[in-house]
């Protein structure tokens, strides 16, 4: 069972714990590596007290696992050693992390809603006074440059406020829709952004079952993912957009948590690029509000996409390899006309 968890296959003859441990980077819950000398087994063998510890590691296939581990020293029939008992809590950690992200987005949305009106009033006052000065004229060229800078700052501030408002809970204008129609419209919308060095491949499964969603909000998600993909390919590459339907039990277990434990059909939309990829150590943070690696980024786009898809009772995930490319996959439950749609994560705004 342990070897299966570590994804090492069978244990080579003569391999010791030290040999096995050296092939795995084990970290505490804060991401700090736990050195071999501080490993639970080593400490237990030294008869030191070992408390239960939450650890994470990457197995041989590169998948991150979270464990609650305990170590005990034992003596049995003249043999002495240490036993480790571990519980795989990877999926529970993923769900707790998703819930925490949603809670932070909710908090930011509430804060943004409360401040937006006041900020807009301040910006309008600044913009109005700049317009009055321009209308009266009689100022120097240097003052004109200053006024241009003020106007530019006001416009950028207004844009940032609009982005912050994306965190707000919004009423969903729900209807049955064909995801392929949304994708085709998004492709037409983003066509002017496709440079000559970008190849586009569309693989849309025909006669997809319909989903129940908000057309414009799903459109916003796909536009955001396509723009991110294009920005990840500054030297050109291939953009691939695909749709297909799978059974819920073919999605990952995090998706099953909201899609009736894998019993429903799920429509999946994947948007992939052959760009720079996302460093492994930050892939778990990309949906965090305001987290960005872009020099002029705001860290709003992906968290907003995360909120919208969760509001649709769906899931969004990422598979990325640095230097190879990135694929985002959105999974939406197929619409059951007999079932009333209720968003549990985000109730409708009043």
CATH top level label of the largest domain: Alpha Beta
Overall tally of structural domains: 3
Please tell me what the overall shape is. Answer: extended
Q: Give the strand line-up of the largest sheet.
A: 6-8-9-11-10
Short description:
This protein is 37% helix and 24% strand. With 350 residues, the protein is an alpha+beta fold.
Overview of the molecule:
It is built from 9 helices and 11 strands. It has helices spanning 2-6, 17-21, 40-45, 90-136, 141-164, 179-190, 215-231, 253-256, 301-311; strands at residues 26-28, 53-58, 64-76, 79-88, 174-177, 198-204, 211-214, 237-247, 265-273, 315-321, 325-333. The chain has a 5-stranded mixed beta sheet with strand order 6-8-9-11-10. It folds into 3 domains: 2-88, no CATH class; 93-167, Helix Hairpins; 174-333, Heat Shock Protein 90 (2-Layer Sandwich). The protein is extended and about 95 Å long. A hairpin with a 2-residue loop joins strand 3 and strand 4 (79-88). With 350 residues, the protein is an alpha+beta fold.
Essential attributes:
Helix Hairpins, 3 domains, 350 residues, four-stranded antiparallel beta sheet, Heat Shock Protein 90, alpha+beta, five-stranded mixed beta sheet
